[in-house]
């Protein structure tokens, strides 16, 4: 089928998309957006997290045809004109990245949390990241980064 | 299937906006698979276990994505995702909202639906025990007409239900809570993993009834009828619905034993059958104790965090 979707504000078209393809496959293999990572393809690791019409989803579990006419936001869209997104800055500041494989999904999950809940408590942070698996860091620095990003988002003047 | 290396095989994917179009598609080709959140279907497609000729997207059909209050309770559209159930229905359906909060992860709850869980009918699904404990009814619809099936008669085997191949699950009707309800599950961690076993309990004071549901401890989600009858009898004889007196320990223990006796658990990677039987007894005793304490204190139970 023919697929039209908006990714990070830009319209994309793809031809000959099969019904069994996932949104993740379309993003990576057809549109060359390699930010969302492919690991389990079962919804268990969160490496492929993106927003679909503003809702955080595992792109590996979204049948590509369902994304027809819809709007997708990936990690590539996080940074703006004026530099990295606060969650990206916080991940760097806290050393929350080792191999980086989980990072795009973690950033999207953290961004999603701050959209919904600007002043998250510990339980809310853990719940928001519960679907994102990190193979390296042990999570401590990631949790710290989310706390820092939340604090900076609430008080932007404290940003570096 | 690795999305990086294999060309996916052809499968028609229909995107109807009206229910009657979806029903016609279901009737037109045997084995057409309805898809809402994709959280189960995409995994089955990915493992190559399922190779349907066609799939029908249900997420564009607005009437399936709404819930409404009816005389009998809440009529929950098949494609309302768990996040919305947890956020919007915690007052009328506290037990179902609590169960919805324990599903997978935020990403999964944003997409997964009760209609999908009923269609998949995995014995491990988190919402089945509470649907059983509430005496919910499933609305099925096809080009041939509509029917309602009590959820207790809905599951016929692992992954199998009374749904005919051309039928869609349109909604599930859940009576509004009259008293405390609780859901608890045992598992290796709180998020993402499937429950090793689970238990739901709901108090129905107007009918002097205690509803139950067991997950992951039999080929199908099932209630514990003997435990229900036993506790209803005890509460009646001791006049506890009226006095709101404490539930004796031996009644709680016996309730747990009868709940465990209602299981037919398997041995698998998540746990042995002996463990499951034991854990169901513990969860049953604990959840009934909790809802009863809340009933005595005129509180509603919001469910229990995962163990
Ligand atoms: S690749 Fe999608 S959740 Fe793991
Ligand atoms: S940094 Fe390596 S998986 Fe998280």
Automatic annotation (TrEMBL), chain A:
It comes from the Bacteria. InterPro entries: 2Fe-2S-bd, 2Fe-2S-bd_dom_sf, 2Fe-2S_ferredoxin-like_sf, 2Fe-2S_ferredoxin-type, 2Fe2S_fd_BS, Beta-grasp_dom_sf, Diverse_Oxidoreductases. Residues 1-78 form the 2Fe-2S ferredoxin-type domain. Keywords: 2Fe-2S, Iron, Iron-sulfur, Metal-binding, Oxidoreductase. PROSITE patterns: 2FE2S_FER_1 (PS00197), 2FE2S_FER_2 (PS51085). This is Carbon-monoxide dehydrogenase small subunit. It comes from Streptomyces hiroshimensis. The lineage of its organism: Bacteria, Bacillati, Actinomycetota, Actinomycetes, Kitasatosporales.
From TrEMBL, chain B:
This is Carbon monoxide dehydrogenase. It comes from Streptomyces hiroshimensis. Residues 6-179 form the FAD-binding PCMH-type domain. The keyword Cell inner membrane does not apply. Pfam families: FAD_binding_5. InterPro entries: CO_DH_flav_C, CO_DH_flav_C_dom_sf, Diverse_Substr_Oxidored, FAD-bd_PCMH, FAD-bd_PCMH-like_sf, FAD-bd_PCMH_sub1, FAD-bd_PCMH_sub2, Mopterin_DH_FAD-bd. Keywords: FAD, Flavoprotein, Oxidoreductase.
């Amino acid at each position: 089928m023919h697929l039209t979707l908006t990714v990070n504000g830009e319209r994309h078209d793809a031809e000959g998309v099969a019904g069994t393809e996932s949104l993740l496959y379309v993003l990576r293999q057809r549109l060359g957006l390699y930010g969302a990572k492919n690991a389990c393809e079962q919804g268990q690791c969160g490496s492929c997290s993106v927003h679909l019409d503003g809702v955080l989803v595992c792109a590996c579990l979204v049948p590509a045809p369902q994304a027809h006419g819809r709007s997708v936001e990936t990690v590539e869209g996080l940074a703006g004109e004026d530099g990295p997104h606060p969650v990206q800055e916080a991940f760097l500041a806290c050393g929350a990245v080792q191999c980086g494989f989980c990072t795009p999904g973690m950033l999207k999950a953290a961004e999603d949390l701050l959209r919904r809940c600007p002043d998250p408590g510990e339980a809310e942070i853990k719940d928001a990241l519960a679907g994102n698996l990190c193979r390296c860091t042990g999570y401590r620095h990631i949790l710290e980064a989310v706390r820092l990003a939340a604090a900076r988002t609430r008080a932007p003047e404290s940003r570096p | 299937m690795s999305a990086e290396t294999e060309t996916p095989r052809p499968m028609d994917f229909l995107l109807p906006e009206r229910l009657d179009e979806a029903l016609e598609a279901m009737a037109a080709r045997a084995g057409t698979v309805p898809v809402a959140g994709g959280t189960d279907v995409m995994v089955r497609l990915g493992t190559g276990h399922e190779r349907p000729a066609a799939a029908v997207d249900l997420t564009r059909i607005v009437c399936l994505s709404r819930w409404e209050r009816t005389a009998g309770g809440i009529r929950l559209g098949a494609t309302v995702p768990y996040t919305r159930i947890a956020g919007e229905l915690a007052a009328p359906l506290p037990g179902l909202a609590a169960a919805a909060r324990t599903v997978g992860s935020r990403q999964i709850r944003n997409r997964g639906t009760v209609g999908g869980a009923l269609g998949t009918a995995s014995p491990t699904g988190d919402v089945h025990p509470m649907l059983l404990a509430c005496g919910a009814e499933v609305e099925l619809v096809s080009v041939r007409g509509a029917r309602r099936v009590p959820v207790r008669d809905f599951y016929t085997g692992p992954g199998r239900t009374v749904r005919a191949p051309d039928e869609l699950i349109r909604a599930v009707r859940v009576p509004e809570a009259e008293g405390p309800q609780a859901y608890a599950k045992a598992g290796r961690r709180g998020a993402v993993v499937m429950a090793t076993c689970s238990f739901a309990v709901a108090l129905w004071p107007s009918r002097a009834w205690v509803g139950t549901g067991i997950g992951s401890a039999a080929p199908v989600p099932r209630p514990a009828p003997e435990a229900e009858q036993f506790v209803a009898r005890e509460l009646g004889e001791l006049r506890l619905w009226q006095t709101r007196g404490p539930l004796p320990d031996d009644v709680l223990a016996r309730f747990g034993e009868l709940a465990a006796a209602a299981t037919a658990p398997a041995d698998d990677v998540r746990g042995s059958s002996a463990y499951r039987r034991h854990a169901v007894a513990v969860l049953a005793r604990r959840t009934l104790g909790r809802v009863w304490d809340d009933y005595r204190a005129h509180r509603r139970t919001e469910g229990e965090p995962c163990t």
